Amino acid sequence: PEYLEKLGAYVFAECTSLTSIVIPEYITEIPSNAFANCTSLEFVQLSEELRTIRMDAFSQTRNLKEIEFPKKLTTIAANAPTANQNTKNPIVAISRITNTPAIINHICHI
User: How far apart, in whole angstroms, are the C-alpha atoms of residue 37 and residue 102?
Assistant: First the structure.
């Protein structure tokens, strides 16, 4: 293919120098552990076509400051991005997410 069709599990895991990323429009799923331990990651722009964020996709991304979830997102597994003291724009419009672990609702105080 002329472009990347999907992200693989652990694709950016342990990339401690990664500070920001733009997920291309044709990506519909962030796989498990895709950004695990990306300790410098601060900004994520997700694809408008994104529908699923798999388990631990963003685990240990403690410096994440901004992420806005697209309208088509319906599934967030455990350890998706959640509000923390550094996050300016945590989970947006969580009410439209239909498949979300209860722990995310608790952490985000919704």
Answer: 23
